Amino acid sequence: MNVALWCILIAIILPYVCTAVAKISGGYGLRHNHDPRGFLDSLEGLGKRAHAAQLNSFEVAPAFAAAVLVAHLVGNAELVTLNVLAVLFITSRLLFIIFYLADWATLRSLVWFVGMGLIVSFFVVSV
Prior knowledge:
This protein is mainly α.
């Protein structure tokens, strides 16, 4: 399996990292599981931002996975190009999460746009 396909797995796992940060920052650790959605909705500060980063990560993962798979199926792009784009996307997502947690809204929005541009680029390089 190549790097771009492994990056899909990383994109699937990243939201759960954000969930762990949200739960830990909420003071209950990872064991508060009677009403996890209600608990996450009640968070403030860092925990609330981690939860928001989790939701955004869940939203973007399918688009990234689809872009990588379509690019592989079409087969017109070099594998190294797809791998580089995938690593750049994961890097943008890591920065997005860090900037979200740090409450740096402008930088967070900028790297969000970069990530979306990278998703589009999978389709562009496959033409």
